[in-house]
Amino acid sequence: MDSSRRFFVLMASFAPYVMIAAVLGLLLLALVKHWIGVGAAVLAIGAAIATQLPVYVASGTPGTGQALTIMQSNIYFGEGDAAAVVREVMANDVDILTIDELTPDSVQRLDAAGIAVLLPHRYVEADIGAEGTGIYSRYPLSDQVNHDGFILNQVSARATLPTGEAVTVFAFHPVPPFPSGPQPWSGEMERIRDILDAVPDSTEHVVVGADFNATQDHSLYRKLLDTGIEDSADQVGVGMLRTYPSDKSFPPIIGIDHILLGGAHADELRTVHIDGTDHMAVIADIRLR
């Protein structure tokens, strides 16, 4: 049971590539005139088109309110180049940074690189290894929470803009489904869904920056969107934004880092490389609704 679940979680991570293989299978089956196999391959390709095509079509209602730039970065056990993070914050005029795998040492290096000049407000729960998580903001933060029931730190805070509007910011990082197995990860994804589902209806604007260790093809990830939160990648229509791994000789192959939005719409979404990390950082230019 455990191994089969692990297999399906793995296959979901690479679903677009598995679906591409169906096209190759169709060609091979047609060559050998295996018509039953051809029919099955056609059905598989049809299912692939039905599930994958929508993520390449922009969706949602554009925002016309306050413009903000959001950045999400996993800095690999705190070893990511702090100066590079700060350079990207400056170059992209970032307003809110969510950051995973934040260690006490990396907090000091970010400070030495000048993060406080650009983003003077913070709520960080730094820790050893992968446990630390934080939020840096151009605007004051209040209602800071370190959510219970997780192995790694999951934090949230409320950013108050000069207009008086407030944005509830979540920085999430559930444990990965590998190599220990998918049960802790699935339990934490369900807990994150409960947290998002409990956001009061009166909360107009929500930003979630996270390494979910999940792609758009994982059902537990899609269930997060049942709460009314929208995937910025879906809003822009970029499909899978590939973010991992970023430290190999080949480009990233799966998208597990995400920016989700409530009461806001992304106008642009992009990735940037941070030296010393194994994840691309994600940057979204958004407007509040």
UniProtKB/TrEMBL annotation:
Keyword Lyase appears in the UniProt entry: no
The record's SUPFAM superfamilies line, in alphabetical order, gives: DNase I-like
User: What one GO molecular function would you report for this record?
Assistant: endonuclease activity
Q: Which Gene3D superfamilies match?
A: Endonuclease/exonuclease/phosphatase
Question: Keyword Magnesium on this protein?
Answer: no
Which InterPro entries would you find in this protein's record? Endo/exonu/phosph_ase_sf, Endo/exonuclease/phosphatase
Which sequence ranges are marked TM in the entry? 7-29, 35-58
Q: Which residues form the Endonuclease/exonuclease/phosphatase domain?
A: 71-279
Quote the Pfam families the UniProt record gives: Exo_endo_phos
* Alphabetic keyword roster: Endonuclease, Hydrolase, Membrane, Nuclease, Transmembrane, Transmembrane helix
UniProt protein name: Endonuclease/exonuclease/phosphatase family protein
Q: Which organism is it from?
A: Antrihabitans stalagmiti
